[in-house]
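Fold this sequence, please.
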Amino acid sequence: MRTALCPGSFDPFHNGHLEVVERASQLFDRVVVACIGNPQKSGGMFPMEERRVVVEECTSHLPNVEAVTRGGLTVEAAREFGADAIVRGLRTVSDFDSEMAMAQMNHRISGIETIFLPTSAAHSFVTARLLREIAAHGGDISTMVPPPVVKRLGAEAGR
């Protein structure tokens, strides 16, 4: 059984993330989507456990996908879940620079390969950081995130 780890902060999980997970689910027997805390990203929109639940809801149509939370290094999570590869989405050429360095380091310390899946043009401009900023100012991001995220954003607005 071939297993892929799709790591990310997923705050919020958006349509570009979903596209990458859906494509990975066609390439691998098992896909583990790991919500991993990123110390370089502060001020999250959703708590870690809620991110996991959101990913679970957004991928419920994919029987070979599971969502988990995890701290620490991505390669440690990959080992823990028996991943054959780490899957990362690419939006732009600038993503490639940082992702390639991370992939090479991960391979160096673990031997685990990274597979890059480019997102479609429809999602190439979507970033979680921009979505958080727009939502924080009351903007509408409902066309860029799956329904479970929209639902939670509505609940947040009512708090």
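The first strand starts at residue 3 and ends at 8. DSSP finds six helices and five strands in the chain.
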